[in-house]
Design brief:
By secondary structure, this protein is α+β, with helices and mostly antiparallel strands. The strands form five sheets. Strands 10-11-12-13-14-16-15 form a seven-stranded mixed β-barrel. A six-stranded mixed β-sheet has the order 3-4-9-8-6-7, with no helix packed on it. Strands 2-1-5 form a three-stranded antiparallel β-sheet, with no helix packed on it. It starts with 6 loop residues before the first helix and ends with a helix.
Length: about 375
């Protein structure tokens, strides 16, 4: 996402540009282009719509269907009267609905859900000609993630690949409720990651924060719901769990997701199941292990016995190993890839999520407790 420009700043630029148009017959946001170059486009492969909100400028790129139709997916807070195309009009031109659109001119005369003829000529003379429609969500917050060039391709290449990013979240009214650099974005899920084009993600913030009114935490999940055309299954189950008082049930919020200006679809922002205040509030045995072991204890050789139990060999135990533990039932490769876990008498494999680097004694203890 580009640098933020206030509405008052844009309005002042409009007045200046309008006065300039009286002199030379054109309207160009040179000042806006200087202040926020990332929203200025000059070639047919990167057509971007700038969306003014009360707190700044958002962006969405042109999305093109296989049949050639184009779409601009607008967040709930957008108003076409506050949208404009910021392009290099010294060498380019743009027409919408057979009307020439000057750079920086607001789209007050246009409406959502109406197809318009669209024609853009870039500085190389390349013509992009489409039918475009403005589509808009209703009543949803929007999450904007910005990564460095090619970083998203790197993330998509392997679920464990991490990339730095910045994140902005706006509510349905357009108010920015979060804006900061985050530690990383990476893949999430198993078959939902490997088998689906619409990917789920894990986000780690630099500091815990209560996003969209949920419990404060630094790890969050963006659920893609790729297997659920209705998009309501997760909500139904989690709402039911909360209504019956099931402890530590994650909260969810529907959001529109944009990455590098491209609309990625409807997602659910969810609290990640993790040990900590605002999440699963139990004793953090992982931290207790770290206190009594050297920093490199995780590199110690692992063990695996004939029952399938596994963990870290030759590590010290804290005085109390009775908790807390966070377990996850996993089979096959999902169990094999994890460091610590055990298999029940009936053959059910459980990964020890926390402490993820568990000692032989800790694994034996929680295995015994789980099966009695």
């Amino acid at each position: 996402m580009g640098a933020v420009i206030s509405r008052n700043r844009i309005q002042k630029l409009c007045i200046i540009a309008a006065a300039f148009a009286c002199i030379c017959g054109t309207m160009y946001y040179q000042a806006a282009a200087t202040a926020s170059r990332s929203v200025v486009f000059s070639d047919a492969d990167h057509v971007t719509l700038s969306i003014l909100t009360g707190d700044g400028v958002l962006e969405t790129t042109l999305w093109r269907a296989e049949n050639g139709a184009g779409y601009f997916f607008l967040p709930s807070c957008a108003d076409l009267a506050d949208c404009c195309f910021l392009y290099d009009d010294t060498d380019c031109s743009l027409e919408l609905g057979e009307k020439e659109i000057a750079a920086g001119a607001f789209l007050s005369a246009f409406r959502p859900e109406v197809p318009y003829a669209f024609r853009f000529r870039d500085r190389d003379g390349t013509i992009l000609q489409d039918t475009v429609t403005f589509l808009q969500s209703a009543g949803l917050p929007a999450v904007y993630l910005q990564t460095e060039d090619a970083a998203l391709d790197y993330v998509h290449a392997d679920k464990e690949n991490k990339a730095k990013a910045s994140m902005t979240i706006v509510d349905a009214s357009g108010k920015i409720v979060y804006r900061d650099a985050i530690a990383y974005i990476k893949g999430h899920g198993n078959t939902s990651w490997t088998d689906q084009e619409k990917k789920p993600y894990l986000l780690k913030l630099k500091e815990p924060f209560p996003l969209l009114g949920m419990g404060s935490g630094n790890k969050w999940i963006l659920l893609a719901n790729a297997y659920d055309p209705s998009y309501i299954r997760n909500s139904l189950v989690y709402d039911l769990a909360q209504s019956v008082g099931l402890p530590y049930t994650s909260q969810l919020r529907y959001v529109d997701l944009y990455i590098n200006g491209e609309y990625r679809g409807n997602y659910q922002l969810a609290e990640k199941i993790d040990v900590g205040s605002g999440r699963v509030d139990i004793n953090n045995l992982q931290k207790e292990n770290e206190k009594v072991n050297p920093p490199d204890y995780r590199e110690n050789p692992g063990f695996r016995d004939d029952t399938g139990a596994k963990g870290i060999a030759d590590m010290e135990n804290p005085a109390d190993i009775t908790g807390g533990y966070l377990l996850e039932r996993n089979r096959g490769k999902r169990y094999g890839d994890k460091t610590s876990g055990f298999v029940t008498w009936s053959g059910e494999p459980f990964v020890v999520r926390s402490p993820s680097y568990a000692s032989r004694e800790e694994v034996a203890y929680i295995a015994e407790v789980t099966q009695h």
